[in-house]
Amino acid sequence: MFTFEDFAGQSAHLAQLQRDFSRHAFVHAYLFAGPRGTGKRSVARLCAMAALCRGEGEKPCGQCGPCRRVLGGTHPDVHTVLPEKDKKWISVGVMRELLETVSVKSFEDGVKVILIPEAERMNAAAQNCLLKTLEEPPQDTVFFLITDQPAALLPTVVSRCRVVRFHPLDIEAAAARLVALGQSEQTARARAQMAEGCVGQALEVDDAQLAMRRDLTRDVFSIRRAGDVLAVVNAYKEDKGRQAQTLDALEAAVRDILLAQAGRSSLDGAGYAQQAQDYARSVPLSGGLALMREVTRARMMCESNVAFASAFEAVLLKISEEYAKWPW
Ligand SMILES: [Zn+2]
Q1: Distance from the CA of 101 to the center of ligand 1, in angstroms?
Q2: Distance 135 CA to ligand 1 centre (A)
Q3: Do 238 and 316 belong together in one domain?
Q4: CA–centroid distance, residue 77 to ligand 1 (Å)
Q5: pLDDT digits (tens, 9 = 90+) for 219-257
Q6: Pick from 12, 68, 128, 174: CA 20 to 30 A from residue 274's CA?
Q7: Are 139 and 111 in the same domain?
């Protein structure tokens, strides 16, 4: 089981939340906002456990019946609101049904907890329906609106919530956290960097993504002359499903190269091929910036239906040009 301490550094309000929920001193609605993978859902679940816990000592104990039921997703007073099956949006119908449920007494004679893990999926009607409830909140009920897109919520809804922001960790801290969670030390930094410090996302990075990062940067930054370009374009243009991922991965690589060129971070252990490190070392910042402009343009070209091969080729030619300018 996670504890509040496990999310240290991802929000400034963790200790306060634990105190407030353990003492039943919480407000009726919280908005947990921050990038995907920064602990929002897990912390909301911990708050629910702390509010419902019947254990002795520090809450949540993780051992008592209510704690275990929250962990197992079977607590009858914890409701999770999701879009209906195969629907993108949480409709007003779903919301009305929920609000009816919470208008009755709790099953276990305690607090009722409403989790809305993708709050941005509430359409305007659903948000307005929720708003009425937030304006006259039922007793002993706490709402958690959880989102990585807080701008999708009506300002009137946001203003009824206590906003708690969540943040990514810095790369080193995220890597250390991954190791503490049992990930291998060899790949922890690469995963942390790929997920930009969002630990939850880093846990989802799979070996294929790591392999792609290494192989792509090896192939792309091996290019020294214009004559090297075609073979690489041909190797990547066939797999249509991965074309967008290729540009995403390249953009992430170039961004990290820029940070390395600017002396802000190192590429060591980040899962890139040696060739990417060579580019960062032998080409100055201006070359990294020129390459970033080219990658951005390639993405725009692909979005306006220019063939991937042409867009990718332009990026690779830029790499050969930059190398030619700085031949030492
Ligand atoms: Zn407990």
Answers
A1: 24
A2: 30
A3: yes
A4: 15
A5: 999 999 999 999 999 999 988 888 888 999 999 999 999
A6: 174
A7: yes
